[in-house]
Each structure stands twice: as structure tokens, then as C-alpha cells.
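Thread: "does anyone have the structure for this chain?"

Original post by V.I.:
We have the sequence but no experimental structure in hand. Need at least a predicted one for the grant figures.
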Amino acid sequence: MKHTTLKTRDQGKANGEMSCPNCESAIAVTFQALLVDGKLKCKNPICRTVLHLNQAQSQSAMSAMRKLQDGLKDIG
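Reply from O.Q.:
Generated one for you, C-alpha cells below.
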């Protein structure tokens, strides 16, 4: 399985986006995609790369994101 990390080219992306490892198009990184869907999808209709979250290894990060999401709901 190929692991993807954010690269310097991601600095030009909008907040909440990263570069697709295959075509460098934008991939939206949202609470929904990470916590509910468990995957990130490339916006390029030709590429269609899907990155799957390893939920077993990401439990502490997912827990922190849920707490953050709950806190943001309380503010809004």
C-alpha cells in the first residue's frame, strides 16, 4: 500500500486541500471525508484517485478531530 504525506507543493492549495499523489489536482480534506467516509477523493474526473484512511492506526487522530468538530459546532 502506498502512503501519502503532504508535500511542499500543497502549500499552494487552498485551506482544507492537498495535492493528489498521482495528478497533483486538489483533494478536499474535510471532517466528513475523514471521519465518516474514511477516504479522500481526487477532484480530477480523469484521475479518480481515492486515498483510504487507515482507521485502525488513526484512532487517536480521529478522536481529536471529533473533539475539534464538536467544539466548532458549539462555537457556531
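V.I.: this helps a lot. The radius of gyration is 13 Å.
O.Q.: and The beta strands are 17-19, 26-28, 39-41, 50-52.
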